[in-house]
Amino acid sequence: MKATAGREDRLDAGTVILLALAVAAAAGLAMVAMRRAGGRESGLARAVESVGQAQASLAGRMAQMAEGQAASQAAMAERLQAQERALSKAVEERLAELAKRLDEGMQAASHRQATSLHELRERLVVIDSAQKTITELSAQVVSLQDVLSNKQARGAFGELQLSDLVKNVLPPSAYEFQAAIGEGRRVDCLLKLPNPPGAIAVDAKFPLESWHLLRQAKTDAERVAAGRAFGTAILKHVRDIAEKYIVPGETAESALMFLPSEAVYAELHASFPDVVEKSYRAKVWIVSPTTLMATLNTIRAVLKDARMREQAGVIQKEVALLLGDIVRLDDRVAALGKHFDQANEDIRQIRISTDKVAKRADRIEEVQLGDDPAAAVIGEAKGVLPVG
Q1: Is 249 left (phi over 0), alpha (psi -120 to 50) or beta?
Q2: Where are the alpha helices (DSSP H) in 150-207?
Q3: Which of 104, 137, 169 is the endpoint of a domain?
């Protein structure tokens, strides 16, 4: 629209210039005509009249141009105002949309921040709980170190672990703690197995000092000395168990030495095979918590098999009684069959009698339907008498 208005303005300006040139040309022609006419008044009058007409036409055209330019300016101003209003509206809409997006973004950011703070608080609570647990565990570790540093407390710890393992696997009738064997001796645990092999003694030992010396040795000489002390401590425990807890005629020919530490057990079997071999020759089997669990499961299977053998006689007796009951049941079924046969025979005789009664009733009915009263009386009398 702006380009069209510009073209119209340029067209009007060109028209005015052409008109002005035309008026000038007319005036020039009039002057020429006046010169040629020698000042004749008629030519001058026509020229003046022509010039006046041209000026009037020019004035009218200029007035039209002014009106058109004013209308064009008004239209342009209106278009500019409309565009300004549209632009203002678009800017307001964009600003409103931008404000809405900013508000939504701020709300989302606030929600995320609140969620993050909530999660952070929860994690802090978990961390605080874990810190408390770690503190408690540290106290328990310190307490465990205190327990293990005392020989008597360490022995009680081994006995307690042995007790827990045995109670978790075997029935109460299969073991006894602090059982008396031999001449006034008591063993930590006595596993009651049938003969053979018989009761097996289990004693808990924990050579912690010598093992710590072995782990803390730095030089070869220290390691050799600590290893010798460790092997000596183990063999001393083995000899004590073999002498005290293997009682001929009362226990099995072997016993178990329980080490409540997998680390000590692993070090013994890895670095001291000669000590393990000597324990085998003394018939003292060294076990850890893991291997003791496997041994107890085997013992449970042996006890189950022994109970099954003990119950085999009872089962055979019950089977014999069951066979006797079956024979008596067969005899009674046979007797019942005889009764059924007799009942069938009785039923057959009853059916014969009923058939006869029915036939006599038919004959009586035929006699009653006759016309002779005497025959009816005779038939009735015959019907009373038994037949067959």
Answers
A1: left
A2: 151-169
A3: 104
